[in-house]
Amino acid sequence: MKTIINYIYFLNLSLMSKSNNYTRKIQKTGGSTHIIALPAEWIRKSELDKGDVIKIFPQPDGNLLLKPLSDKDSKQGKETEIDISNVVDTNLVMRLVLSRYISGFQMIKIYDNKGIDLEVRSQVGQLVANLMGVEIIDESDHWLVLKDLSSLQSLDLNQLIRRTHVLSDKMFSSSIEAFLSYNKENAELIKIQEPSVDRLYYLVSRQLNAVLSDFSYCSFLGLKMIEVLDYNLIIKRLEAIADHAYSTALMTLELTEKIEDKKAVKYISDLSNKVRNRYNKAMNCFFNGKVVEANEIANEKTDFHEDVQSHYRYILSLDKEVAVKLILLLRSFERISSYAADIAEVVINRSV
Questions:
Q1: Does 316 lie in the same domain as 210?
Q2: Are residue 331 and residue 342 in the same domain, yes or no?
Q3: pTM for this structure?
Q4: Which residue of 48, 185, 298, 314 could cross-link 52, Cys pair, CB 3.0 to 4.6 Å?
């Protein structure tokens, strides 16, 4: 499903890149009034005429955004219908619903002329549980109606990112602790926590897509257009860390006994602390604009890689079942270390 989200971002960016640029001189009339002429082509495409009202949105980067008061292309507050009468794959139904949610539609109607079967209803119910603010408000034999009750303009993007970071970090640290202590009960709890991160991921993705679809949201969210891809990368990396924690929890449930090799346990414990420190420092740099520290994190990626590699020989000498799972953990740590470097690169790029 996340592939759909990435496609939406790149589609919108490609459309942005094809837009025309216009140059106008500022003219002064009267004592203090300044005016510019609007491009005739834009007036025609926007179906504007004398007397129509245009909204002006000051952007965080100092630019101004002009938008017709009645925007026919905006999806916010609009409805969409998905006809699944000829769709046999339930997974495709879920992807279609999720794509409409990410695109910003406030009401989604699912229709099947043959009647919506129990499996689809169950799957939609599970998906709705993972979408922040969405509820099933009406249904019949042929219809399911989903409505988003939240307001994109009232949400704090940075607060959502911080919350995702806190949840992902907690999942990661808890998953390693559960793995090393052979605590299957805690591993089950981590599995339950994973949907909470998914909900935040989808909600932030929806906000960012709203900006690309309707530039006026930059003002509401306090974003520069260039920052949209930065936030997209950050939320994807945090969600990926939660996915690694989920995988570690599953490995814990697959273990037949506690890992008793103290040397191996110490390796995993030390490396998990190091990689956790890396991505937490990277997020601190992101929130506080610490460019020098971000550069250090990016530079330390190679050192961490060499540190991980130095433990492979010993781990491969262990029992096969244990060795396989520990190797998977080491690879997971390397991926997360790369995520920290990616976040650090964002901080450096934002300083320009």
A1: yes
A2: yes
A3: 0.74
A4: 48
